[in-house]
């Protein structure tokens, strides 16, 4: 075992040591696991012990801290700023974990942690309190398992309403988006969003179906669809005071990160596959035992006749039903996204309410070859009243890439991006996508 110790500005470390301004950052690699210690403003004393090699319990570690302001210990997989894949392209992600910890710090988190990016069209322009602000495309995300202070209690930073909730791995989680204004991020300091899954029941061991959280966030408008920077098991403690008040210790005794394979049909009973199958930035998928739902065969051809999409009813066979989009491409339901109570037989998959964002992000619809004689069905977006209004025909993309905006009912709103908070359709040329204005 090797110990990384940091006292004031003196560092004895296994791995590498980097100083970002006034902060201290320690990194090390063991097998396929990337370790990191981050200590804001180099406050107090922080020590951790990491294994010399990875055993059957994965990326384990122990940690102690005293007098720190904001301290993070984590172990997982880091693709970094050179990542070229979003989480759907990387594959299904799960973590089996067990931990014990003790701290007097009220603001403390045990759970999955990482950074990712917005796609450019989804970078927010408003704070959660409704005021205008300029934000980075960076997202700091948390899938919390155990905690002290609930971040959603800060209504100025997080607003007054959660984005939604879902039962994942047998636990009900509430989803929140919060603001970090002028705070440390991947590139210096700035404004960025935080995504949270906050459990109603705390726990310190079990399975975390990470991809199920990402998909559930997407379903409620939390679009973390850019490249994935990292995924890790993390201990965090925060007091905001340097040199006094903070103290604690933690032991992560199991941290088995699995990347690849298909999303299980039930996130409360995830299938198992090999842990972190590759140390490359593009891990190959490993096999996952099929459940009764995943036993469905993925359609690879377009069944005729084409269905009229969207429809107010689920097709008689949602696993083979095929529709043609206005981009002249044909699609079937992608069964690998099934899970968390959602299947290809779910009504929302076929009612068109999320078609554009799901197509853009690679969710739920898989492209297949169109029949040679197929004709395009009009794409419409369901209205809140249950009816639907066609999105109007658009002129071809011009040289200056003129954008047009529409309500979810297909009502034209002009060429200026809406400023009122809500979800809209953005169109330029043949590209149609859903955007969120905050």
Quick recap:
This protein has helices at residues 87-90, 155-158, 210-219, 347-350, 355-361; strands at residues 2-7, 10-12, 16-20, 23-30, 33-39, 45-50, 61-66, 70-78, 93-103, 107-117, 138-147, 164-168, 171-184, 189-199, 205-209, 230-238, 247-259, 323-324, 330-333, 365-368, 380-382, 388-390, 404-406, 412-414, 422-428, 431-437. The protein is mainly β and 438 residues long. Strands 3-4-5-8-16-10-11-14-13-12 form a ten-stranded mixed β-sheet. A seven-stranded antiparallel β-sheet has the order 2-1-6-7-17-9-15.
Radius of gyration over alpha carbons? 23 Å
According to CATH, the homologous superfamily of the largest domain is Glycoside hydrolase family 11/12, catalytic domain
Briefly, what CATH class of the largest domain? Answer: Mainly Beta
Q: Which structural class should the secondary elements be placed in?
A: mainly beta
Description:
The protein is mainly beta. The protein has two domains: 2-259, Sandwich (Jelly Rolls), CATH 2.60.120; 385-437, no CATH class. It has helices at 87-90, 155-158, 210-219, 347-350, 355-361, and strands at 2-7, 10-12, 16-20, 23-30, 33-39, 45-50, 61-66, 70-78, 93-103, 107-117, 138-147, 164-168, 171-184, 189-199, 205-209, 230-238, 247-259, 323-324, 330-333, 365-368, 380-382, 388-390, 404-406, 412-414, 422-428, 431-437. The strands form five sheets. A ten-stranded mixed β-sheet has the order 3-4-5-8-16-10-11-14-13-12. A seven-stranded antiparallel β-sheet has the order 2-1-6-7-17-9-15. The chain is globular and about 70 Å long.
């Amino acid at each position: 075992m090797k110990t990384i110790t940091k006292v004031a500005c003196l560092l004895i470390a296994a791995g590498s040591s980097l100083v970002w301004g006034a902060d201290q950052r320690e990194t090390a690699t063991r097998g396929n696991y990337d370790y990191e210690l981050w200590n804001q403003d180099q406050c107090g004393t922080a020590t951790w012990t990491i294994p010399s090699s990875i055993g059957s319990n994965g990326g384990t570690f122990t940690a102690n801290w005293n007098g720190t302001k904001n301290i993070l210990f984590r172990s997982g997989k880091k693709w970094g700023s050179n990542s070229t894949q979003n989480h759907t392209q990387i594959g299904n992600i799960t973590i089996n974990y067990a931990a014990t910890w003790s701290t007097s710090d009220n603001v403390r988190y045990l759970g999955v942690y990482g950074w990712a990016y917005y796609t450019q069209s989804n970078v927010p322009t408003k704070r959660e309190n409704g005021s205008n602000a300029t934000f980075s495309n960076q997202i700091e995300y948390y899938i919390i398992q155990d905690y002290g202070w609930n971040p959603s209690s800060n209504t100025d930073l997080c607003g007054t309403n959660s984005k939604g909730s879902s039962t994942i791995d047998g636990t009900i989680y509430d989803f929140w988006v919060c603001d970090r204004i002028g705070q440390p991020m991947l590139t210096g300091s700035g404004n960025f969003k935080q995504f949270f899954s906050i459990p109603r029941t705390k726990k310190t061991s079990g399975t975390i179906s990470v991809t199920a959280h990402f998909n559930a966030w997407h379903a409620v408008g939390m679009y973390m669809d850019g490249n994935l920077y990292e995924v890790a098991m993390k201990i965090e403690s925060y007091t905001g005071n340097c040199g006094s008040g903070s103290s604690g210790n933690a032991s992560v005794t199991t941290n088995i990160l699995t990347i690849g394979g298909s999303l299980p049909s039930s996130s409360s009973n995830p299938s198992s596959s090999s842990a972190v199958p590759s140390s490359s930035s593009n891990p190959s998928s490993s096999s996952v035992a099929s459940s009764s739902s995943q036993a469905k065969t993925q359609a690879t051809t377009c069944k005729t006749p084409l269905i009229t999409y969207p429809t107010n009813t689920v097709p008689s066979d949602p696993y083979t039903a095929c529709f043609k989009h206005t981009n002249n491409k044909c699609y079937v339901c992608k069964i690998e996204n099934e899970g968390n109570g959602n299947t290809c037989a779910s009504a929302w998959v076929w009612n068109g309410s999320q078609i554009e964002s799901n197509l853009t992000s690679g969710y739920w619809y898989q492209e297949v070859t169109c029949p040679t004689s197929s004709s395009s069905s009009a794409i419409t977006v369901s209205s809140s009243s249950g009816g639907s209004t066609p999105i109007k025909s658009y002129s071809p993309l011009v040289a200056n890439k003129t954008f047009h905006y529409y309500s979810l009912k297909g009502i034209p709103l002009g060429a200026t991006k809406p400023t009122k908070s809500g979800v809209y359709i953005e169109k330029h040329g043949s590209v149609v996508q859903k955007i969120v204005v905050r």
